[in-house]
Design goal:
heterodimer, A: 98 residues, alpha+beta, Folate-binding fold, 4-stranded antiparallel sheet, two-stranded antiparallel ribbon, 6 strands, B: 420 residues, alpha/beta, 8-stranded mixed sheet
Chain lengths: 98, 420
Amino acid sequence: MLITCPYCGPRDVIEFTYQGDGNRERPDPASQNFEAWNAYVYDRLNPAGDHNEIWQHSGGCRTHLRVVRNTLTHEISSVAFAHGGHGSAARRKAEDKS
Amino acid sequence: MMAEYSAFSLLANALKGNKDWKPAWRKPDPKASYDVIIIGGGGHGLATAYYLAKEHGITNVAVLEKGWLGSGNVGRNTTAVRSNYLLPANTRFYEHSMKLWENLSHELNYNVMFSQRGCLNLAHTPAQFDDYARRGNAMRHLGVDAELMTKAEIKRLIPALDISDSARFPVVGGLMQRRAGTARHDAVAWGYARGADRRGVDIIENCEVTGFLRDGDRISGVTTSRGDIRAKKVAVAVAGSTGRVMQLAGIDTMPIESHVLQAFVTESLKPFIDTVVTFGMGHFYMSQSDKGGLIYGGDIDGYNSYAQRGNLPVVDEVMSEMLALFPGLARVRMLRSWGGVCDMSMDGSPIITTGPLPGMYLNCGWCYGGFKATPASGWCFAWTIAKDQPHDLNAPFTLDRFHRGLVIDDKGQGANPRLH
């Protein structure tokens, strides 16, 4: 299985760490909605077909990626930055200050 | 019921040219309705049907299998049977299974080749050895056999094991369960199928469930590739396909991820190892079949998959682990590899429960340990279906335990299915 990293190009799956179901919404850290937290921690879509998931290129540029992969064929149809690419957090912080 | 298989029947049939054997199970067409439908003709579904008929007298039962009988995980596992868990809920449940295994060939009048050759977990650090002592004590506390083994004892038991101090991960000791072992996986499916069939259960192969029938809120049957079938109770025991089948019932999320687990077998060798051995510094387990092939496996591939085939990185890792323990196997050829889809739960423990919808019963979350559970899973699921409430043994294995904070996490890994 090859994943095409937007920075590094096509790389073997052993360079990546799987971080699971990318459909889950993390509740606001201050939220006391236990059902929402339980759903976030424990419930998964687990489709047979296209699956929206998060991988990290841990053996490469360390970017988190949002990958659409077919769980029946292992075919990957899309790879994108999970959070807008490197430096995006710093950039957001800078924008917040300005 | 008189035993169908005996030394006498073997001899009599041999003299008559083996023309009078009955098929082990019928191939009936589905009836319009049943008392109970079990979706999934694997080990657990067939065992459930058998115990429903035998223990609870419920014989108007259909087992619906989308492929052929035994085509799923019951024919894809590495056949190990053990009850060496840490947490009491798991220990009690798997020990019940072990006791059923010990009498299974006799009970089914079918040789499942259950062989209590022992299962040895190797420890490679003093801390790991201490941890095994703790688990062994927890097991013995509940009446399950466990013993610590020294390096010298292990060397006598498994001469081929690299026990030297220069090994990649030197062996410190191990935890042995002597009553653990292996069984012939196909025979388990066939034995339960025949036992259920002879008690009146319809086993319907090539019958894929495509949807659920409802009577108001209540599940009242299924639509299938062979027509609609109604039932008072619909039980789901589909292992790796749990997500797909529950989606047909309108339940989109479950505390389950489907992952692929690969397994391997080598060419036949002379007797090489007469126990089940597991590696403690990675994830690897191996035994030898009566035919001589070494049967072994390791970790799941680690990403969601329904493909029933894996990728090469795990193959590479499993072979490395094998050679770390048994350098002498370097030139042995691997004959076959295959994959099975495992229903990995969020705490590594199964779910056997009523619901989650009225009229429905659910058996899933076996991770990659479902084979050894087959008898107890069927026994407890049959109880749950017949009495509309769980037996004490499966009462902890609810579906809502995750949201209620009652997880049973033997390995302490948290809600990360790929690590269980």
